[in-house]
Amino acid sequence: MTGTIVNFYAGGNTARGFANLFESSLQGLDLIYILKGGPGTGKSTLIREIGNDIVNRGYDIRFIHCASDNNSLDGLIIPELKIGIVDGTAPHVIEPQLPGAVEQYVNLGEAWDAARLNEQKPLLESLNGHIKKAYERAYNGFAEALRIHDEWEAIYVNNMDFQAADDLTSHYIELLFRNWKLERQSRVDHRFLGAATPQGAVDFVPNLTEGLDKRYLIKGRPGSGKSTMLKKLAAAAVERGFDVEIYHCGFDPNSLDMIIVRELGFAVFDSTAPHEYNPERAGDEIIDMYARCIAPGTDEAHADAITGIKQRYAAAMKAATQHLAQAKSLRDELEQIYVQAMDFRIVDRIRETIRQAIIARISE
Would you say residue 121 lies in a domain? Predict the structure, then answer.
């Protein structure tokens, strides 16, 4: 019997630059392998192959995906074994807490021909410089899109019934948590359910919510209180001692897109674009913030302004995504230089050493 795979992001290309939530996903682990090495040195392949082996042995795993490369992984967590493997290169640098006792560095640079790479030094420096600029342009583009989004939000904030939003939130806190309380400290995991990638917005909502009894799909407009409701629900879970997964917005990490309380079998998530879903499972329920909290006729009264804002927002997001795609293309060139200088037989031996160490943990 194979285990299950949960997919999410721990880093994101956002309107506030690269957002790093890796440390939250690594809490409670007894052993963390931190992979070092340039692009194309086999980090993602090592993570994927060990993960697939472990899941086929019946263990549940978590794959942490790379926001900058749709086909790459940044990490693997094996909760039952309390083991993790993560890409520890920039921009998701992992700060060690107990080096040697918990964190073990794995240098895949042992497998490259340093002299061959040195011959390519001017090209490597040039490509790295162009990649850095492409990311800067992408982040500036997302920041501009956020400024436009703030204009969009302001229309609805100015037509918001905040008391109705508070009452609606209180209703769901009572419905979801009743009078239950656990006498313990909650575990809180901060993650991203999706990300802005070189191929556009990607999310893992179906995978993350699989097997839950109830899914509450929040509908509404920008500024209609969706993130505020999620923050209050998350706080209620923590106050009552329940473990909670908090999924931040991949566009603005200061906002929330979803919370999951697996002990109570439910998820509540922002079900608007770019992660828009409709009820399709037994137990799915819509929470309509627009209908409950926004003055009737707001869409119609501001139709022209909203149309213009949507067009400018879409254009800014498209341009920023194109810069991410350019950065990915440049990284592909960089990777090929490293690939040609690598002895992957050494990488294979490193991977096998890690795999055997994990299997030894299983046997203990």
Answer: no
